[in-house]
Specification:
Elements: E1 5-9, E2 12-16, E3 25-26, E4 31-33, E5 38-40, E6 48-56, E7 59-67, H1 70-91, H2 99-104, E8 112-113, H3 116-131, H4 141-153, H5 159-167, E9 174-177, E10 180-183, H6 196-210, E11 216-219, E12 223-226, E13 236-241, E14 247-253, E15 256-261, E16 267-270, E17 273-276, E18 279-280, E19 285-286, E20 292-297, H7 300-312, H8 318-324, E21 329-334, E22 337-342
Antiparallel strand pairs: 1-2, 3-6, 4-5, 6-7, 7-11, 8-10, 9-10, 11-12, 12-15, 13-14, 15-20, 16-17, 18-19, 20-21, 21-22
């Protein structure tokens, strides 16, 4: 399935609807055109806007960057993509050869050494699990398996299946010591799907910054990371999807990120009721809310994790997010309309 992401630049709507990998593109006569995208950019004496797409993490990651030359842009983008794919190969819960999948195969009670990259990712994930009271939980892999089984069979998991999965879930049941990991219960499966995309996007952004290209925007289906503002603009203008194919708000991003979570694309319907791919860790069942949640924060990693947590938690718990993360803004879209909450000014 193709996913559509709406982004606006200076009043022009860009629909990202492409798959795979393309060569670097350069604006010509201030207009970019290919078979999928058309937009205009303002005049600038030194910088031009370049774009590169890459298939990654089951979606398309689009890099838009201002650079002085095609060569500079292409070199930086390719390095960023290489870094992103490297991290994806470490963190992917679906790649049978990924380091995370190999860790999941290690028996419980066995101390397992992991790469510094995976150790860092697990530490960050467990930190957010604690800060969200477990509504974001990187150990929900057994529940995710049940959801995928339900999607294939259109049958609800039995009580016994949920009980066995529940015994293997819980972020307190995993321990880190340096670059080593210890799982305390059998059948535990770590799944970083609720935070991994943000981690990859952040890592790619850091590569662009190291290459001296700070005016960039990285986007995937649900996550956007912006660097410094484009020339002649206060930020990158990004549309917030309401979940109904409509735009609920526009935000100007500058060294910030947004992540959106909801059941628009991934859900299973059983006996007339839709269950999202977002799992409530307290029940092991996909959420049934039709609310669309977008988190705006200073990193894609944080926005991704908090969007997952806020989609799984009860509505009243969202206020705790604002207390613990005062820099965060939350955009809620549902049957009753859209709402923006948070202490940060637009």
């Amino acid at each position: 399935m193709c996913n559509i992401k709406l982004i606006t630049f200076f009043g022009f709507v860009v629909v990202v609807f492409s798959i795979g990998y393309s060569n670097i593109l350069e604006s010509k006569k201030n207009t970019w055109v290919n078979s999928k995208i058309v937009f205009r950019e303002p005049e600038t004496d030194e910088l031009k806007l370049y774009r590169m797409d890459c298939g990654m993490m089951g979606t398309v990651v689009t890099i838009k960057v201002y650079a002085k030359s095609r060569e500079q842009a292409e070199s930086a983008c390719r390095k960023a993509i290489t870094e992103g794919k490297k991290l994806e190969h470490i963190l992917s819960p679906r790649d049978a050869c990924s380091e995370l999948v190999q860790l999941n195969c290690v028996p419980h009670g066995t101390f397992s050494a992991v790469s510094p990259e995976l150790a860092k990712a697990l530490k960050v994930a467990l930190d957010y699990a604690r800060l969200t009271d477990g509504y974001f939980d990187p150990t929900i892999g057994p529940y995710v398996r049940l959801w995928r089984h339900a999607k294939r069979t259109h049958q609800f998991p039995t009580a016994g299946m949920l009980l066995r999965a529940r015994e293997a879930v819980g972020y307190s049941k995993i321990s880190l010591c340096g670059d080593g990991v210890l799982k305390s219960v059998p059948n535990m499966r770590i799944d970083l799907g609720g935070i991994g995309k943000g981690m990859v996007i952040d890592a790619m952004g850091e590569v662009l910054r190291r290459e001296g290209l700070r005016q960039f925007c990285l986007s995937s289906t649900s996550d956007v990371l912006a660097g410094d503002a484009p020339p002649h603009a206060s930020g990158w203008k990004v549309a917030i999807d309401s979940g109904k194919g409509q735009i609920s708000a526009y935000v100007m991003l500058k060294n910030e990120a947004v992540s959106t979570s909801g059941n628009k694309y991934q859900y299973v319907e059983i006996e007339g009721k839709s269950y999202s791919h977002i799992i409530d860790p307290t029940t092991g069942i996909g959420t049934t809310s039709h609310q669309y949640i977008t988190i705006r924060s200073t990193s894609a990693t944080e926005a991704d994790a908090l969007a997952t947590a806020c989609s799984a938690c009860p509505p009243q718990w969202i206020n705790k997010i604002l207390e613990r993360f005062p820099r965060v803004v939350i955009y809620l879209s549902g049957e009753k309309g859209s709402e923006r909450i948070g202490r940060k000014s637009q």
